[in-house]
Amino acid sequence: MQKMILALAGEMGCGKGTLTKYLVAQYGAEVYRFSNPLRDILDRMHREKSRDSMQQLSTALRQVFGEEILSEIVLADVGQSESSCIIIDGVRRESDIKYLRNLQGFKLIFIDADLQTRYTRITFRGENSSDTTKTIEEFIRESEAEAESRIRGLKEISDFILENNGTMKELEEQFEKVVK
Fold first, then answer.
1. Distance, CA of 33 to CA of 91 (rounded, Å)
2. Residue 8: beta bridge partners?
């Protein structure tokens, strides 16, 4: 199989994590997340890993070290990988893929889902500390934050768009069509 480097983009709760789990199980994919360096820093600072904390840290790092700082970290990690299938989860800005676009086998996949579906998924999974008690109003407000609001623009420059308002099986089938 030709090397696949797939960057997954989409608003919170769209199904990036679900597709990633499938790709790990089906293809033995190696996963890199833009949020991992943020989580690492917050751990070292002994701070809560809330969505708000990660958004603030991401903004601060980009202001001090440049828009591409997280992309540079992910690119360095991906460059060391020998895996034939690499997933880059959590692309939020066009600058995130500036360098990654030059990698052979790279494709940007945008996963789209409606607001209510995404809200239900976020509150159910409780990945971040405040997710399970989040109201729809808070979810909408978080969706408008700087780090989240720029995601929508990636849909226009994506190589593929997957609609994910249905089942996991339907998402997997859409992805398999993309691979072919």
1. 8
2. 89, 109
CATH 3.40.50.300 holds for 4-179: yes
Measured between alpha carbons, how far is 64 from 83 in angstroms, rounded to an integer? 32
| Number of CB atoms found within 10 A of residue 82's CB | 7
pLDDT of 3 higher than 90? no
Give me 53's structure tokens: 């904390």
User: What whole-number distance in Å separates Cα of residue 112 and Cα of residue 166?
Assistant: 11
DSSP state of 131: G
Distance CA 65, CA 61 (A): 6
pTM over 0.70? The answer is yes
CA angle 117, 121, 122 (to 5 degrees): 120
Q: Domain boundaries in the chain?
A: 4-179
